[in-house]
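During the first year of the project, the team set up a workflow for recording each protein of interest as an amino acid sequence followed immediately by a discrete structure-token representation. This format lets reviewers and collaborators read both layers of information side by side without switching files. As required by the reporting guidelines, we include two representative entries from the current panel. The first entry is reproduced here exactly as it appears in our internal archive.
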Amino acid sequence: MTVEQNVLQQHSQKHQQTLLNQLREVTGTTDIQLLQQALQVSNGDLAEAVAFLTEKNAKVPQQDEATYYQTSQVANDRYISVGSQADTNVIDLTGDDKDDLQRAIALSLEESNRAFRETGITDEEQAISRVLEASIAENKASLKRTHTEVWSDSPNPHDRKRMDNCPVGLKNVGNTCWFSAVIQSLFNLLEFQRLVLHYSPPARVQDLPRNQKEHRNLPFMQELRNLFSLMVGSKRKYVDPSRAVEILKDAFKSSESQQQDVSEFTHKLLDWLEDAFQMKAEEDREGEKPKNPMVELFYGRFLAVGVLEGKKFENTEMFGQYPLQVNGFKDLHECLEAAMIEGEIESLHSAENSARSGQEHWFTELPPVLTFELSRFEFNQALGRPEKIHNKLEFPSMLYMDRYMDRNRDITRIKREEIRRLKEHLTLLQQRLERYLSYGSGPKRFPLADVLQYAMEFASSKPVCTSPVEDIDTSAPPDGSATAAGPATAPTAAQQQRVPIHKPFTQSRLPPDLPMHPAPRHITEEELRVLEGCLHRWRSEVENDTRDLQGSISRIHRTIEMMYSDKSMMQVPYRLHAVLVHEGQANAGHYWAYIYDPHQRRWMKYNDISVTKSSWEELVRDSFGGYRNASAYCLMYINDKKPFLIEEEFDKETGQMLSGLDKLPPDLKQYVKEDNELFDKEIEEWDALQARKAQQEKLALATPMSIESSPPDNTGQQDPEYMEQPSPTNDSKHLQEDMERAISKAAAEQEERSPEALLNAAIKVEYTRLLRFAQEDTPPEKDYRLQHIIVYFIQNQAPKKILERTLLTQFADRNLAFDERCKSIMNVARAKLDLIKPDEVNMDEYEMWHQDYRNFRETTIFMMIGLELFQKRNYVEALMYLIYSYQYNRELLAKGLYRGHDEELLGYYRRECLLKLNEQAAAMFESGEEPEVTTGLGIMNELVVPCIPLLLVHDAEKDLLAVEDMRNRWCSYLGQEMESNLQEKLTDFLPKLLDCSTEIKSFHDPPKLPTYSTLELCERFNRIMATLSRAPTECR
């Protein structure tokens, strides 16, 4: 067969499959034989085929929605849809007005068919096109984004530098987390990685007709090779996949946007890869049947055996991703059992020619890479929209497929029959146990053993008093006026003769003989003894019966669990390689992947640009479902008996394992080298820029120090900004008073009156005072570090030379020259500063300590203003102060415990501020008013969403829960009725909220801080911290 004939045949088969898919989608009929019959009768005319099926459905009762899947498809269709869910376009054909319905369907099909004839693009390809268009548009829009959004790269290339041989992440270029999750899962299959890296286009490609496939597949394969080569040898922490996505986008034309589905993308990706490798395989093996490595790697075969209306059939089909329903099942084996058996299977094994229909699937050949697509979305007909299934579904790390193999068909049927019998017996036992555990005939039921115990307790209870109301005068007014007359007042004769009649519905008076607690009124000792004996015996019998039933149920469960545990049924092991996770709802969400590293023997989490170490426990939490909005969407298992799938490549000559650039062919090696050189150049330019800035800052700091030797009557020494206040009413006055006090105390204690002796004594006095402050245990509102830099230095164990020079600098302050004694001490201090040699005090270290203290004061001001604004409920302005105070404080604490403030306190208010803003924005969105909605979404996009990565980056439990609460609040709107414009805005916004990586990126610039004197700063800090300390614990 020529290449042209092969292409035409494949096009014809795909066109026929497209017609079948359209017909199935419109009519809701899943019986392939019936669909093919309709196409044959109608000669390929879809309108007539729909009319044929309409009449057929009018005569034949509608099958249940979970109707079995008939597998007699064309051989080219490798994507099997087992028990597919309802679709948005399914139309009920059982109504009376069939003419109108048929006209509407025919019109719809004509429009769809015309589009296919004009463009040659199927509906599935148009869906892919929509998401790729959206992704590229989002990527282009990202170039115009302001710094308030989270998509920009860090300007510092060191933040983007790959550490050692850590895996390389993929940048999310706009709603492409699905692309990253799938590509990373495939890249970490080393055999697949080798196939892609060493792919070369057919040598005769220039002679072949440049059809649509070649225009699409060959450039895409080259970009995929480039992308894989960067993931192998790049020096970058993450790489940009935009060019590969651009190729995908250019293959189709569409303007709609939607978030792409992982399984659909994987289907199409494997299809394109198969086509690309098929071209190469046909060239390499002329005259022989070519082997396609993609087919060999990802595709298997199963045998479908069954009965259709009494007639037996048997077909062999090829499959790629195997779809499994999640709803109604608790683990992967239950899903597989349901997918492998459909319909009334009893007739499959019987010789009777019954009218029942059903089928079984038996795998005849499993692929090395076995992928299960978990169907977690279903269409809600009532709401008219898809919904996500959040049910918990467990899956094992090692899956044995023996029970599903055709060669084990007979033994599996025997075991299934035994399991069915055991489950029937189990159901009976559970029903019997339920009668013991939920006893009674009313709406409230209790365990029978407890009921008997309660009866025993009641029977043995003794009444406390026979008349609890004897001491209560219910007729007395509440103010006690009746008792004021005294109890000695004798009743009249009429009152003595009058017998009170109890009227329960007209009086509030209690019955006179009601006991204080439930107890028998009359019971003899003999009656009590007999009753207690019976109740005790019955309770023991019930407890024994309950234990026996529970033991029997446990033994049956163990028997079922161990049914396939013998060695003969553990010969086909598949190890879990990757789990693709979806977080969110049906309309929007975020994808990431957990991938097992067999060499490090640990799980890794691939979340766009972030690649982190993980664990099986974290995977279970995020993947099983039922816990959050996150759950597994796709499972990738690999044959554990085929190690070549994950084995590293070795040099044939030296036997050394290949790594990095050595794994690449020459063309890709050169490509990666050039990219690494560009990145190295970027780092060099950044380092040079930072060096220039540092030099400029150093010169600016050194300039005031050069004035130290100038005469006292000149401009003098410029102290650091936390000491520098030219007016004596500010910090200098406070500092001056401290120095004067130290000098006066030293003069009183010191016998020698020379300026140098007084200076040394004053320094000792001042240091002793500050040391006492540093060692004092104070409440949070009284922070001595703000009052004096020396306290900060002492608590953080600054070097002695740094402390000495700082104290000398303070005694050298020109503001001390108000009398002769202080002036002489100041001059001595200045002279000592001049005598300090460069090798005695490291000025770089000195400046570093002083810069740290400036940073501490700035952090304090950020924190103080943020907390003040938070208490005033000005959350919009408070957020940036709290965000930056937390970030700067964290940097300080990384150097030492006493370098900053309480991290938990700052973390709490940062988190609460984001939650309050989220609440405000959600309330605005719920109002439905256009200005309010716009303002609310603006708050989320400009303030909340850019800050979410800050909460995620350190995996703090409370921060993660806060993010989950914020996301859940917005996801909850997906199931509610709302205006179409609100639905559109929500759909546009949710991917930004859900699709956040953990990399901290630029957003708002830090607010400009006012200048405070030390006294003002301490007073305001004291006030705000005292307010917090008086707040309840849960509010701090």
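The second entry, processed by the same pipeline in the following quarter, appears below.
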Amino acid sequence: MEPISSRWSNVSSKDNNNKEVTFSDLGSKRIRHGSAGADSEFLSMSQKEIKDEDARLIYINDPDRTNEAFDFTGNSIKTAKYSVFTFLPRNLFEQFHRVAYVYFLVIAVLNQLPQLAVFGRGASIMPLAFVLLVSAIKDAYEDFRRHRSDRVENNRLALVFEDNDFREKQWKYIRVGEVIKVVSNQTLPCDMVLLATSDPTGVVYVQTTNLDGESNLKTRYAKQETLQKATDLETFDGFIKCEKPNRNIYGFQANMEIDGRRLSLGPSNIILRGCELKNTEWALGVVVYAGSETKAMLNNSGAPSKRSRLETRMNLEIILLSLFLIALCTTAAATAAVWLRTHRDDLDTILFYRRKDYSVRPEGKNHNYYGWGWEIFFTFFMAVIVYQIMIPISLYISMELVRIGQAYFMTRDDLMYDESSNSSFQCRALNINEDLGQIKYLFSDKTGTLTDNKMEFQCACIGGVDYSDREPPESEQAGYSVEVDGIILKPKMRVRVDPVLLQLTRNGSKATEEAKRANEFFLSLAACNTIVPIVTNTSDPNVKLVDYQGESPDEQALVYAAAAYGFLLIERTSGHIVINVRGEMQRFDVLGLHEFDSDRKRMSVILGCPDMSVKLFVKGADSSMFGVMDEVSYGDVIEATKKQLHAYSSDGLRTLVVGMRKLNDSEFEQWRSSFEAASTALIGRAGLLRKVAGNIETKLRIVGATAIEDKLQRGVPEAIESLRIAGIKVWVLTGDKQETAISIGFSSRLLTRNMRQIVINSNSLDSCRRSLEEANASVASDDDESVALIIDGTSLIYVLDNDLEDVLFQLACKSSAVLCCRVAPFQKAGIVALVKNRTSDMTLAIGDGANDVSMIQMADVGVGISGQEGRQAVMASDFAMGQFRFLVPLLLVHGHWNYQRMGYMILYNFYRNAVFVLILFWYVLFTCYTLTTAITEWSSVLYSVVYTSFPTIVIGILDKNLGRRILLRHPQLYGVGQRAEGYSTTLFWYMMFDTVWQSAVIFFIPLFAYWGSTIDTSSLGDLWTIAAVVVVNLHLAMDVIRWNWIAHAAIWGSIVAACICVIVIDVIPTLPGYWAIFQVAKTWMFWFCLLAIVVTSLLPRFAIKFLVEYYRPSDVRIAREVEKLGTFRESQTMGTEMNQIQDPPRR
């Protein structure tokens, strides 16, 4: 290892010229990490004992010995699903998970039996084969892309220590136990425990964008004991005992033994596959997890699979159609049985039937006749084969294509493009597009979802005194700067300062007691954090900007605030920090660090100060901090601070409390021994570390409190108002204080001044029950009053998983808005489940952080915000966007369109197939109840696939019953989906009655017109085929709202294509009906019948449609008329005619 000899270490990053400020001559000490990450509920083994059966043993730099005993997974990855040999069987197995496909396979198999053969054997298989082929091609292409990506990834090169030197090796050949060298800006090929870095203190900086989407740099550390030994890897002797592979990217538990010493390893000592090395020249590590066992690959699962409500509802109609199909088949079999019994004496000679075959011998032989009972049995199953398209096989593939088209236009919508993050809308789950049009409950996170999650320091309370005047003199607008070694350093982000407080910090810590407290306060802010300072170049070579990188936006804001007041954090290593205090460089040794966790709700750092004293600095939420303060000595200051915190929270500001105390030698030694024992424990390490932190974080002296503003995103108030008018109940779930949450509720228009607030703050089950029952009674007594329910996380503890869930749900249903504050992540999911399990209404959850993942996955529709807290929410979501306000066009516009299109398309597919089946059924009644058909088998096959399918797909993608402008202007139009007006059982039965009428007209008009003529059945069948295609396409044309050239081409082109196909089929001599279309089409009767069929079949539908829309117009019909007239003068009257949903109706 080469020491860093220069005072400044400049390391250029890949995208910009960044430098890390280091002062290597100041020395360092080892940093200690305490209860980091202990708050995660899914830390798996990281909080538990590493038992022998749950552990793996890795011998450092000895992969042969490591893999000899355990045979660990190699580093080759495989995200592809298929191989050349497994593609066909596995793909077919997956496709036949759809019951409808199994149904059509059984039909095709039945048709292969001679006794049941109705169609040609090839023709009967074609529809199913076509659908399977299209899906297989799509799956094969997607898997080919995965294979290509895997090949590129596996063939990347890394430096592996072999034969006493680092040699390049392909990633796929890396093994567990090998030592890897990674250089700056390289991606890590596997999960490895750090052994050494280019920094003599063992610190390394990584960017985890590829892992969790967070762009801020994170610090990881090599153990001091391994730094020197790593210089001679040949003699490095040791092993690591770690937990088995798991998905938790925030937890890791292991022990390392070298030279007879056992060292504890945690999340800060491991760097994961997919991370990039930044601002560090190189790092050495030993591979502990490789390939599919790395945490990145274990987390490489897509969005959860969900089924749309419309598709689930469609199953009921498919069951009804199946029953209808069985009824038709039973009717055909029963009537055939009666006919056979009635004519049993004439079966040998009756025309067109002739049971006897006299060509064999004079007395004849029964020809394909198996007796009365078997004939009925065969007739039933032959009817099933003939009428099989009653269940539309093409519907499934049509739905997939329509959803792909809808997703394409959603992702291309400029109204959902976020310029600030340069991110477009993402559709991660294609199968629930239409659910966006039926949302009734919206559950939203606050921080980063309703707000920007870009924190700005606003106020400070020091010693109980408020400093909130942020109007600085003009001279201070330039911001704070300091000169170090001839280089002027400035914080990258400016913070407006309080002039009085600024003057106090300038006076120095020894001027007055007030000035001393102010300096102590900002020293706490600069020191008590995990921020990494990075220096970036500017256009002026003598001026550089200090950029503070950290996982918490709150910490960044506090450190920038400290810098603005003259406490500029310059350097952070594994053992010390350097702070420039008003031009004086001061170094503090980091003796211990307990990171923030949600159990303690605070973090602490133990510093060795320049005056040789040891001080403990703690910051955290007020709810956890006031309990560890020395109230006896500082009671007055605590009370004054509490009052200021209440004022800050009422203004919607986020608050933190800062405390400290000096540690004497005995206290520090006791803490150090307890900490070392806890950090090396094999059982319950995280709990022991929390206990150590809790023991030292006591009897604190209150230093002050901070107030940070997290501003609302642009358009949030207008978005929430539009959603509420649309009839969507908005619930905001936040971890903030109640006062902060209420303030944000008013500013976001979730709460209004005319709402009566019902606040539930209970500390016991009985008081919670009593409060909820009293609130329910008060709301029931005044039905006209608008109510806002506000409940805290403590009360929810007693509500969730208890009999109080029903009481809370009843109260929430009567409320216009619900605000839950101080809620934990698991409670968010519990609240969604509470509603989802008690109503059939659709739920949507939206959030931006890892704490929102459970809520997003619990809801029917999950939306992730690409925000400041990484991409965990996005990766778990069904849809992703950049801003909360994009929900308005997503739901009110695209959701409305998708629901209307998909609902109509499903009903239309049922209708067009049922028309064709009933034509075949009517024919059976006039052919001695046999299953012969006049329509050729190829026309029967092509009807659903070619003749009528393409227009359905085009209209399902492009048609719009209303324009974007009017949908956004009148949000109550969204209620169409909530009330299921686009798809319902009523519409299904209306469609079926219309189907019976149209099929009867199509069949009987030609039948009676040609009754007694010499026309052959093939000619009549061609007329029925063309008439059916024309009628169903004109039926579709009657319902098209937005005509364009694509719609014209699809509808009229399908009619032309059907005619061409009929002609082609009839000119093939080997097929039945040779030249039939030419014989019938040259007569005037053919064209008269075609015209009569079109007019007679569609006239009742046209008349009913006219009467309904004229005398009982729907909201959509009224809006369409207004839109068509091109004026909105009727908007006032329109508002009264439509279903007004200013406040959602109560249950």
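For the second entry, the following points were noted during internal review. Confidence is low (pLDDT under 50) at residues 1-49, 472-477, 1128-1147. The CA atoms of residues 460 and 466 lie 6 Å apart. Both points are flagged for discussion at the upcoming steering committee meeting.
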